[in-house]
Design brief:
Elements: H1 7-16, H2 21-44, E1 48-54, H3 60-75, E2 79-83, H4 91-100, H5 116-127, E3 132-134, E4 137-138, E5 143-144, E6 151-153, E7 159-164, H6 183-188, H7 193-212, E8 215-220, H8 227-241, H9 250-258, H10 261-270, E9 277-281, E10 287-292
Parallel strand pairs: 1-7, 1-8, 2-7, 8-9
Antiparallel strand pairs: 3-6, 4-5, 9-10
Helix pairs in contact: 1-3, 2-3, 8-9
């Protein structure tokens, strides 16, 4: 590792178990975008909300960590990164949904398994510059961390990054829900109750969130076929870092990604034309192209 690399860059590589080549790619592709976003924030003179979409394992969390450190170290801007994953309903709340609506809702991931009220109040506080407690979710335990271990944001922030695999997803026309897209839907949602519920939540709860976003970023996978391998890499890193009953084996990951197929494919088809910054990836997550459309409003 080169001594010329700043400490924050070396720390980023260690946190995410990345090769030094990641920094070359990030500096080539993400640093110019970061400059555009910083200029927009400066012009607005207020906290700027940036949404980041990307399928499971596409690199959203690493991108946001890179941007957060870059803004702090190179721009003197305070930046907070949030993940939709940290706003999952608790395990007990999801078990109740499974009883009341459909058994598949016990599994975290799809719209309907997020605490949108908690997300709204957290954004309200951050965007208003107030002291804020940011929730965190323990994936190894499949439950939210206790509130006394949440992150404390004690001063106003300039940029909020909100990343999520389904950020920007919109409800599908009802007739598109009729046919199952995979074995999970065929075997466990034959009557369509689960996917129709997810679709209704998207329509009812997510539109208001999207209206708050100032700028959109997408890491576009070449197809859904890559998602299993990418998600498997994530799970293996998680298993190496911590033990827990909810750490999945390969077969469980294969089943888990089926929960995301419908909306991932929907996003891949519909979202690229509606984002401000589009990074198209190959199967190895290398960026092939970058398209900027600053004036686009999803």
């Amino acid at each position: 590792m080169s001594e010329a690399q700043p400490d924050w860059q070396q720390a980023l590589l260690r946190r995410h178990q990345l090769p030094p080549a990641y920094l070359d790619s990030a500096q080539k592709w993400f640093t110019p975008m970061a400059a555009i976003i910083a200029e927009h924030q400066k012009g607005a003179g207020r906290c700027w909300l940036v949404a980041v979409n990307g399928s499971q394992g596409s690199g959203k969390t690493t991108l946001c960590d890179y941007l957060q450190a870059l803004y702090r170290e190179e721009y003197g801007l305070s930046c907070v990164s949030l993940s939709l994953d940290d706003f999952y309903l608790t395990a007990s709340q999801r078990r109740q949904l499974a009883i009341d609506i459909h058994p598949l809702l016990a599994t975290r991931g799809v719209p309907g398994t997020h605490d949108m009220g908690l997300l709204r109040s957290t954004l309200d506080s951050l965007l208003a510059g107030r002291q804020t407690r940011v929730p965190r979710f323990d994936k190894a335990a499949d439950d939210r961390y206790p509130e006394d271990s949440w992150d404390a944001i004690d001063s106003p922030v300039d940029i909020v990054l909100l990343e999520g695999w389904c950020m920007g997803a919109i409800a599908q026309p009802v007739d598109e829900l009729a046919e199952p897209v995979n074995e999970l839907e065929s075997a466990e949602d034959a009557d369509g109750i689960w996917r129709n519920y997810v679709n209704a939540v998207l329509s009812d709860k997510y539109s208001a969130l999207y209206q708050r976003v100032d700028e959109w970023v997408m890491l576009r996978a070449p197809s859904f076929d890559c998602v299993y391998q990418w998600r498997l890499e994530q799970e293996r890193k998680l298993a190496a870092q911590q033990a827990g009953d909810a750490v999945m084996d390969d077969a469980q990951v294969a089943r888990f990604v089926h929960f995301f197929q419908r909306l991932t494919e929907h996003c891949l088809a519909r979202l690229p034309a509606r984002v401000n910054h589009l990074f198209s990836l190959d199967s190895q997550r290398n960026i092939k192209t970058y398209t900027a459309a600053p004036g686009v409003r999803p």
